[in-house]
Amino acid sequence: MRRGNDADVESDAPARRTRSSDDARVDELLIRAADGDEQAFVGVYDALAPPVMGLAYRVLRNEAQAEEVTQDVMVEVWRTAARFRAERGPARAWVLTLAHRRAVDRVRSVAAGRARELRTATLEHERPFDAVAEEVEVREDYRVVFRCLSELAGHLRLPLVLAYYEGLTYTEVADSLATPVGTIKSRMRQGLQRLRECLEGGS
Amino acid sequence: MSVSEDPCLGVGAYALHALPPGEEAAFENHLASCTACRREADEVTQAAAWLGALEVRKPSADLRRGVLERIATVRQERAVASRRHRRQQRGLAWALAASVAAAAALGGVAWWQHSEADTAREQVADVRGGTDALADVLTAADATISTSRMPHGATASVIASRAQSRTAFVASGLPPLTGDRVYELWYGYEGRYRPAGLLSSAGGSQAQVLEGRLGEATAVCVTVEPAGGSPQPTTGLLAIIPVPA
């Protein structure tokens, strides 16, 4: 019966067609790092600290704060590496999810900055996406992500962008777009599912 | 929220870390018992993570040096340096725990696979610094064993000694938690709860002696809490395992 349960858990894992060629290498390094291999962790750091820093800076828009978040996240990755489960997705996604949560929590902890962000987001909600467009690194993987994001209808893309890059909660997104909260929740779900379908099918 | 709302509706907001803290904890509680939601959460969380991979910014050389210096002193959640040694030393105590729990709690069904016992034993050794305390509870003359089913096929057993006022918790098949969440154990007594320690969010098979004394408690309960645990439960109880008087 234990075996049966484990099989259920494994079947939870989503299809992994979005795993890039570099992901397998980093996954392996992280698994070795979980066993205390500091040299392997150096490889994990060099592969993932730049995107972690990129994401932290995008959300925080402050170099010093982004560096602090990056440092905390990378040490946390080392400390909790044993929690990584390759069958649930690549190490890159695991680490970036951690980094995103940390960066957003940090933004939210600064109440005054929060109000400013909200106003900015309300006034120019397309801007963050355009800013990403200008700065995006032209790696093939990223090009696909970017195309998929661009192809999303605006009413699905905006809630994703406002929540992910601006750190707004879904109720704040609903406020800033003058849309009912249930609709926003539904669009966030639909938007990510569309994005996923595009990433899996379109590359 | 309407009564008929799809419980998985918030999965997108969850993946975007856009649920307010209370709702996020409640959603994770739901995830622990909903396979379909959990699968979808993994899918959309990965899609969301791609949004974070669009930008690259090189951290300073100082930061790299700082991180690499720090990891030399930061203890990993599952230190492995002396795993083999501990395995030999603690093997007996754990084998006892496993066989007692399996035989008594589940009517002799051999549910405790060897590899799982290994993992759990390492976790016990790491978290508690050894399984001697566990063995003490298990071998107590007045030890009682109660077992409850948890969501998603997980099983939790509580071995309690009123004489020692000590309690051990043994679980199998716990779903792993996403985000900065942990399982927290509680002593329950007449609707009041005292913290009794944290379990790793990695899920799977875990065993440990509860923190604090059993005292007047009549049950051991499990919730999902933010990392570091909470002084009081902030989410619904995943399991209530009664402890005989």
Q: What does this protein look like?
A:
- The complex is a heterodimer of chains A (203) and B (245).
- Chain A folds into two domains: 21-109, RNA polymerase sigma factor, region 2, helix turn helix motif (Rna Polymerase Sigma Factor, Chain: A, Orthogonal Bundle); 111-203, Winged helix-like DNA-binding domain superfamily/Winged helix DNA-binding domain (Arc Repressor Mutant, subunit A).
- Helix content of chain A is 79%, strand content 0%.
- Chain A contains eleven helices and no strands.
- The longest helix of chain A has 23 residues, at 38-60.
- With 245 residues, chain B is an alpha+beta fold.
- Chain B is built from seven helices and eight strands; from the N terminus they run H-H-H-H-H-H-H-E-E-E-E-E-E-E-E.
- A four-stranded antiparallel β-sheet of chain B has the order 1-2-3-6. A four-stranded antiparallel β-sheet of chain B has the order 5-4-7-8.
- In chain B, helix 2 (21-33) packs across helix 3 (35-51).
- The longest helix of chain B is centred in the middle third of the chain and has 23 residues, at 83-105.
- The N and C termini of chain B lie far apart (41 Å).
- The chains are: A mainly alpha (203), B alpha+beta (245).
- At the A-B interface, helix 1, helix 3, helix 4, helix 5 and helix 8 of A face helix 1, helix 3 and helix 4 of B.
Task: Summarize, please.
The complex is a heterodimer of chains A (203) and B (245). With 203 residues, chain A is mostly helical. Chain A has helices spanning 2-11, 21-34, 38-60, 63-79, 91-109, 111-123, 127-135, 140-151, 154-166, 170-177, 181-202.
| Residue windows where pLDDT falls under 50 for at least 5 positions of chain B | 79-93, 102-131
Helix and strand string of chain A, N-terminal first?
HHHHHHHHHHH
Helix/strand/pairing class of chain A, anyone? mainly alpha
Largest interface: A-B, 86 and 70 residues
